Amino acid sequence: MKHKHIIISALFCAMALPAWAQDDFAAREAQIPENPLKNAYFGETHVHTSFSLDAYIGGTRLTPFDAYRFAKGEDVSVNHVLHNIGRPLDFAAVSDHAEFLGEMLSAQVPDAPGHYQEALVELRGLNDIEEQTSWFTKYVVSNMRSNDPEHPPFFEGAETTKTAWEDFVIAAAQEHYDPGTFTTLIAFEWTSAPSAGNMHRNVIFRDTVVPDLPLSALDTQDEEELWAWMQEQEDAGSTLLAIPHNSNGSKGLMFEPVDNSGNPLTREYAEKRAKWEPLIEMMQIKGNSEVVASLFPADEFADFENAESLATFSNRTYQKQNFVRWAITKGLDYEAELGANPYKLGFIGGTDSHNGTPSDVTESTYNGSHGVADGTIEERREGGIDGWLTGPDANPGSLAGVWAPRNTRGAIYDAMAARETFATSGPRIKPRFFGGAGLAETDDPQRMVLNGYANGVPMGGTLGAMDGPPSFSVHAMKDPMGANLDRIQIIKGWVDEAGEPQERIIDVAVSDGRVPDAEGSIPPVGNTVDTATATYTNDIGAPELMGHWTDDDFDPDSAALYYVRVIEIPTPRWTTYDAVRNGLPLLDSVPATIQERAWTSPIWYSPEMDR
């Protein structure tokens, strides 16, 4: 590749390694042994640094280089406090907004074109949150939520975007990639928000075959044009995928019954979407997108980080069509009608932190996620993340998990593409899930995995036509530093004759020997949380659970899907830790305790597919 350089200031020279001067990682990757039974790796797919304008204006000064340092266990400064992740991640992708990347180079690098423009001088001098909000609304919010967004007047051209992309996004990923120990994935966020409906996607690359420039919502707000651009990159040699997120705030746009021309979905549309979007972010700082209690009342565990205040901003009214469980189940109806499933989505986690701190998801140390907007106890309790939700309604976000044979870019990406992924609400729970025709029941986890791969499919897989009912094997281990497990559930989804999504929740493995009551419900596990001290004990629950279930209501002619949800025992919510640490009363507006969890990607049953 040929590159035209902008002189980088001394402040960044030590960090900014050009992408074309990369190390040859192939030899190092080849030395890393593979585990045929695969390992669980934890990481981040959604985090913003100072190269995202909204993060910078909130006070974030951590660059992509700093974000990876944090992910690897180094101390960084967050809201003027030294902060550490505690346990390093296995992988991370910095996903700064493609929009305004060049502007953020100009804002931060003294030698970059436009650095001394009046608007950027003003930006660097903003210290008051009201002034910051006013500036951001003027140049970003009203622009990006219009139907024809454009670069602000202080944009100095595509060359600044190219330099930010190469010398910061790509170079940081190259500098911090350590095959076998820590994997970096080159990424960006495409931030489309027509009429304030969230249609954002994180675009992830498998390797360093990447375009000269990322695609931004200033180029197009149409996700179908994003997929066309992705096809162009694939034709040029790139391997990439996109991860939609925050469907709870999509205003019904994320899973519409029509395309962007207003026409009913077609097989071509469904095939393109399934190809480019194999995953969806299940949960993040702005809420859990699996289900919401008000719309899924039969699910006793639906009342978890619902972020209901989000529905009060920008007319983002909650509807079933915003939520992941509804969408993946409705996908079965489209598959029957079109011959392809546009919503064949595996699950993955992410935070959307704008502090430059990947997977900073620990409840007990949470100190906000959006700079000054929630960087103090007062703002977290009484303020809000502007334009999105109230401070107390936010949460630390979720963690991405993959099952891969080794920790390299190719292996981590391939697990994502195969949907052998899971998400957790923060704890490092390890769930496994296999399905097949007559899978043998066992109480040996290793034998379960061997049998699952040999005679079935793992999470993210598809079972073809079968005469008898499928069996499913599940296993989960608690976070070694976290709470015990309450239960493992399988959620089954299908559609009725009218094409409406249906669901059934099965408790497959339960701790403490509990049995169903007369109505078939499992009694609650109990609660050891002392809210006065924000502590709990593992006197209840189990460190490990295992179960086996055969679908006793199976119709071999009807498509279905199954995914696993692992529930922890109750623990203090971050708001409880915050209150106790600062000697303040508990907030009445949010629960004092939560039951953290993990979700596996579904296993699909497709009667039209022969295995």
- What spatial form do the alpha-carbon principal axes imply? globular
Q: Note poorly predicted spans.
A: 1-22
Number of discrete helical segments: 15
Number of separate strands: 28
Mean pLDDT: 93
Rg value: 23 Å
Task: Summarize the amount of helix as a percent range.
Answer: 10-25%
Q: What kind of assembly state do the chains in view correspond to?
A: single chain
Q: Which secondary-structure class do the elements indicate?
A: alpha+beta
Relative strand content: 15-25%
How would you characterize the overall build of this protein?
The protein is an alpha+beta fold. It is 24% helix and 20% strand. Strands 1, 4, 5, 15, 16, 19, 21, 22, 24, 27 and 28 form an 11-stranded mixed β-sheet that branches. A 4-stranded antiparallel β-sheet has the order 18-17-20-23, with helices on one face. A 3-stranded antiparallel β-sheet has the order 6-7-8, with helices on one face. α4 (64-71) runs parallel beside α8 (158-176) and α5 crosses α8 (158-176). The chain is globular, with a radius of gyration of 23 Å. The relative contact order is 0.12. Residues 1-22 have low confidence and may be disordered.
